[in-house]
Specification:
Number of domains: 2
Shape: globular
CATH architecture of the largest domain: Alpha-Beta Complex
Number of strands: 9
CATH superfamily of the largest domain: 2-enoyl-CoA Hydratase, Chain A, domain 1
Radius of gyration: 20 Å
Length: about 260
């Protein structure tokens, strides 16, 4: 293992960047391992949600530059330079719903990996920064495309060109994250969110993820929604879930509650 902890509990897989002494810096070996883990998840039909987090007090301080520089001087320089993009795409293309839980530093490549997820939840102590230009290198790993999609072209340009730090509340206002929670409640919030999503029928989760991927890729076709609806109506788990949902709402209405 190159610094990843991977565990699965029923329908949820948790991937933890586990190099706390190095502020969870992303090494070439770790990124290669992450690509392999994602390839396995692509074939795993049982897992419905994948949660990404960092061990200790931060998500990730970004790329492990000394480790990268040592390999970038070698014969496989191009392949090494492309590892981050491949890892980012591996996360973005997972068929499962992906959630990033961010506490402490989320810098450079760490922000890129989190940005490839479907949902980002930030602890109140989260601190973001994209310092690549200050380090004399361009922002890579396909990050500019993800960042523009998430926060818009103007703000993305500001964050990349200035390299300024920003906190959880600005990340929330800019829609980089969907919610901010107290730092000591982040793990609880992630567990609850993952469990809530994982309880939903697999077929509708996979359809929703395909819709998200199609929108990202600019190939979404709303005419496919009719077929998706008909497909879900033939799925036993979806039918059972729907029956329970409407029965619960009917009982609530009869009891004078709200739907």
């Amino acid at each position: 293992m190159f610094g990843l902890k991977v565990s699965t509990d029923e329908r949820v897989t948790r991937i933890v960047i586990d190099r706390p002494k190095a502020l969870n810096a992303l090494s070439p070996g770790m990124l290669s391992e992450l690509i392999d883990v994602c390839a396995d998840l692509q074939r795993n039909d049982a897992v419905r949600v994948v949660v990404f987090a960092g061990e200790g007090s931060c998500f990730s301080a970004g790329a492990d530059l000394p480790a990268f520089l040592a390999l970038l001087a070698g014969p496989d320089a191009t392949a090494t330079a492309d590892l981050g993009r491949r890892a980012t795409n591996a996360i973005a293309e997972l068929p499962q719903v992906t959630v990033a839980g961010i506490r402490g530093h989320c810098i450079g490549g760490g922000l890129v990996l989190a940005g490839a997820c479907d949902i980002r939840v930030a602890a109140s102590d989260a601190r973001f920064m994209i310092p690549e230009l200050d380090a004399g290198i361009p922002l890579g790993w396909g990050a500019m495309e993800h960042l523009v999609r998430l926060v818009g072209e103007t703000l993305a340009a500001d964050l990349v060109l200035s390299g300024r730090a920003f906190g959880a509340e600005e990340a929330l206002r800019s829609r980089l994250v969907s919610r901010v929670v107290p730092t000591d409640r982040l793990d609880e919030e992630l567990e609850s969110l993952a469990a809530t999503i994982a309880r939903k029928p697999k077929i509708v989760l996979r359809i929703t993820k395909r819709q998200i991927l199609a929108i990202r890729g600019g190939c979404f076709d709303a005419r496919e929604d009719a077929n998706a609806l008909l497909l879900s109506l033939k799925d036993s788990e979806a039918l059972e879930t729907g029956t329970e949902y409407f029965a619960k709402r009917l009982r609530s209405k009869r009891a004078g509650g709200r739907l």
